[in-house]
Design brief:
638 residues; alpha/beta; Immunoglobulin-like; 15-stranded mixed sheet; 9 helices; 36 strands; flat; binds 2-acetamido-2-deoxy-beta-D-glucopyranose; disulfide bond; Ig-like domain-containing protein
Length: 638
Amino acid sequence: MSAESEKALPFAQLTTPYSKLAGDDMFLEAAVQWGTWSILVLWVAGASMATELSRPCPQRCECHQETMEVNCSRRQLSAVPEGLSGDSLHLNLGHNRLKTLGRRQFAGLALLQELDLSNNMISMIEVEAFQGLQSLQTLRIKSNRLKIIPVGVFSGLPRLRALDISQNEILVFLDYTFRELVNLQQLEAGENDLVFISQRAFTGLQNLQELNLDRCNLTSIPTVALSQLQNLTRMRLRRLNISVLPSNSFHQLHRLRDLRISHWSSLDTLASKSLIGLNLTSLTINNCNLSTVPYASVHTLVFLRYLDLSYNPITAVHGNLLADLLRLEEFHLAGGSLVTIEPGAFKGLAYLRLLNMSSNQLPTLEEGVLHSVGNLETLRLDRNPLACDCRLLWVVRRRLRLDFDGHQPSCTAPDVVCGREFRDFTEAELSGFFTCRQARILNRKPQDVRVEEGGRVLLHCMADGDPSPSITWMTSQHALLLPTGRVRVLTNGTLELRYAQVQDSGSYLCTASNTAGNDSFSVSLQVSGLPHSRNRTVPHFSEMVWTVPSIITVTNSSAQVSDPFPFDAKTLIIAMTMGFLSFLSSVIICFVFMFLWSQSQGQIKHTATINFVPRTSKGGGAGGGDGNDSGRFTMKLI
Ligand SMILES: *[C@@H]1O[C@H](CO)[C@@H](O)[C@H](O)[C@H]1NC(C)=O
Ligand SMILES: *[C@@H]1O[C@H](CO)[C@@H](O)[C@H](O)[C@H]1NC(C)=O
Ligand SMILES: *[C@@H]1O[C@H](CO)[C@@H](O)[C@H](O)[C@H]1NC(C)=O
Ligand SMILES: *[C@@H]1O[C@H](CO)[C@@H](O)[C@H](O)[C@H]1NC(C)=O
Ligand SMILES: *[C@@H]1O[C@H](CO)[C@@H](O)[C@H](O)[C@H]1NC(C)=O
Ligand SMILES: *[C@@H]1O[C@H](CO)[C@@H](O)[C@H](O)[C@H]1NC(C)=O
Ligand SMILES: *[C@@H]1O[C@H](CO)[C@@H](O)[C@H](O)[C@H]1NC(C)=O
Ligand SMILES: *[C@@H]1O[C@H](CO)[C@@H](O)[C@H](O)[C@H]1NC(C)=O
Ligand SMILES: *[C@@H]1O[C@H](CO)[C@@H](O)[C@H](O)[C@H]1NC(C)=O
């Protein structure tokens, strides 16, 4: 037993008869008896005790005179103890067995500032239970069994600043639940079974600054209810099961500065206007299911200084799309699936001083992603499969100045330096490692390729370099060729032309480039036309989807496409089927009309003309979808 409790016990004795102690251990009883005698002695001896006598302490509680604290924690109480001193400032009733709180349960504790009812079994709080606690600033009812909070429970708490009702089983917040808590600044409401927050639930919380709603069963953002919180500056929404953050989710929260959305495992979409109306300085959307940086949603947040998108399956940060966040200082995207950070990704972010890219799939981070290297102070690049070539030279050169937050980046490639941490490289080694080799095209023998119309041709372009170069192909009109279409660039860099056409003739330029430089090489192609169109190989139907000449769409050349076959097979079959059915029904309708006519008029018309115009809805229907009108045709049946 501590010195404090020995001092406290005598006061317990004065307010409770001996019989109440039955069942407690003998030691306690002995102590109490000793206490009685000592009190009597003190009673006689000291006048100062008179004041202390007016400050009773409930049985089984500890009362600390200096702090005016009554500690009844873990005393197996099933009711709020009686005999609480009216001048107590702090009352701890946590970890007991309280089940209900009646009306005016704490009357007479007008000076109480802090009341802790956490970890009980409270399932019912009567209206006005806290009436009279006019000085109360902090109320904790965390971890109980509340299912509902009747309106009026929190009346008579004009000074309350912090309220914790988390870890209960509350299902709904009714209108006006918190109405009288005009000075409440912090509300912890998380880890309940909340399925609904009524539109006026937060009415009256005019000074609320911080709201935490973790792990609820809400299926949508309570936008209207939140819009009442005009002074909210911080909000945390954790573990909600929402997959789309819709437009205007947080409108009218003009003072909100810090928004944390985390562990919404199904959140994969932010509407482009979802954050509109907010003026945040700190935004966290981590541990969600976003696959791209929500550029459109965040671009209005021009005062943003902190952005955390960690633990989302984001694969790339694209160039020049974050430039509006001109005050950004910290960007965290740790634990993502990043493979590339494009050049210019952080262009315009002149104040960026922390970049946290730990635990991604990045092979490199080029200097060109940053606006200015000089402002970067902290860089996390560890746990990435880094290729230690010239692209990372800027980092390794600053390895002593940059703060790696205790996690040195290390090389994964090339093999000779695999596993080495950046700080292990000596200055002399840097010129040997961290090098690049300019891209160089191999087999540079002049290529002069001839092919007949309708044929297939492959133009090879092989290159080496370190890092391995990327290969692009261009036409003589400088149009970039794509990996799809009739003329396409294969993944190994070879250019493939199918169903060669005369106008495909010309030169094609292959360019191999890597960070160290580029190399290019030109191939000329001659497609010879056939004298007799009869000899032309008509491709099989299944291949006809490619007959739209992609090279012609890309180069926008005015060349006439001499396509022998204006429609593809599908279009023809549909048109014919439709034509036949319409024809049949038209004929039947006509005959019915003629029959009715003959019945009523007694006259028979001997000729009938049927005009029929079938139209397919899909135009040409060809795979290229270039919008030519070749699918339409007119048929006239007489
Ligand atoms: C209150 O009492 C409990 C249980 O005896 C003890 O663990 C806790 O530290 C006490 N709190 C204070 C502030 O003395
Ligand atoms: C809330 O969600 C949890 C976990 O998904 C579930 O166990 C609980 O039954 C839900 N409660 C209600 C009221 O839907
Ligand atoms: C996350 O998104 C992927 C597809 O983008 C989907 O397959 C997966 O189920 C989603 N995860 C969750 C928890 O919704
Ligand atoms: C947005 O927030 C910043 C910093 O908190 C503040 O300086 C600025 O005035 C705010 N802008 C508006 C429109 O509220
Ligand atoms: C980087 O992100 C990781 C994972 O979120 C975190 O643990 C670490 O503290 C962050 N580093 C810095 C410097 O903020
Ligand atoms: C590239 O791949 C295609 C088919 O996938 C093949 O025909 C061609 O020969 C390859 N090119 C080279 C240079 O190996
Ligand atoms: C190739 O390098 C030259 C300068 O060496 C540069 O002007 C040109 O833009 C580069 N081309 C490509 C496709 O990278
Ligand atoms: C045209 O077709 C005939 C047989 O069908 C063939 O003998 C002849 O070589 C073809 N001509 C050309 C130019 O391909
Ligand atoms: C293609 O040519 C048409 C006019 O012939 C022009 O209006 C259009 O802008 C051109 N498209 C491109 C991509 O050059």
